[in-house]
Design a protein that fits this description.
There is one protein chain. This protein is mainly beta. The protein is built from one helix and ten strands, in the order αββββββββββ. The strands form three sheets. Strands 1, 3, 4, 6, 8 and 9 form a six-stranded antiparallel sheet that branches. Strands 2-5 form a two-stranded antiparallel ribbon. The protein has a two-stranded antiparallel sheet with strand order 7-10. The longest helix is centred in the N-terminal third of the chain and has 22 residues, at 3-24. It is rod-shaped, with a radius of gyration of 37 Å.
């Protein structure tokens, strides 16, 4: 065996022993019980920021069987039904007239919201006395009929309108005073 072959054989043996030595000292580590975290936030805030307000109206009940209406759109625009005999609703002052406005905040971004309305009451004047006729809440609408979604910040505004109808054949006329009704509005994913 020549010196150069011996030199190469010795280098090869050294390299092989280095590899064997490395494999003999190889280590492995295991982390047991690693953590998975998640925070669930399904809750959001729904707040009435403006009450549904028809403003000031003159309302007359018919002595016969006629009714008339006042409709406040989801944009806050008032429309009154055509007078039927003496049943009339006349716009006097709409300075404070507004649709109902509800704001959603803190919801999931760009997510569809379903709106439902329930427990709708008729409009009455509590301070006017027991014989005072009521005004029927015949419709309640919102502008989410097509199914709106929250914006990129998880916010959405819901506008509500209503239709009020006078009674047919009132025993007494509507008294002056503040009339009020209520309803529930639910927003959900």
């Amino acid at each position: 065996m020549s010196y150069s072959n011996f030199k190469y054989a010795a280098l090869g043996a050294c390299a092989a022993s280095a590899l064997l030595a490395t494999e003999a000292f190889a280590q492995s580590q295991t982390v047991t019980g690693a953590t998975i975290n998640l925070t669930v936030q399904n809750a959001f805030t729904l707040a009435e920021t403006s009450a549904l307000d028809f403003g000031v109206l003159a309302v007359f009940c018919d002595g016969g069987n006629n009714t008339t209406t006042a409709t406040l759109s989801t944009a806050g625009v008032l429309a009154t039904g055509a007078p039927a005999a003496s049943a009339q609703v006349i716009d006097i002052d709409g300075a404070n007239r507004t649709q109902g406005v509800f704001d959603i905040t803190g919801a999931a971004p760009t997510t569809a919201i379903t709106v439902t309305r329930a427990n709708i009451t008729n409009v009455t004047c509590a301070a006017c006395g027991g014989g005072n006729p009521l005004i029927t809440t015949t419709a309640l609408t919102d502008d989410q009929g097509g199914g709106q979604s929250t914006d990129a910040n998880g916010a959405l505004t819901i506008n509500v309108g209503a239709t009020l109808t006078t009674l047919a054949s009132c025993g007494t006329q509507y008294a002056d005073g503040a009339y009020q009704g209520t309803y529930d509005l639910t927003a959900s994913y």
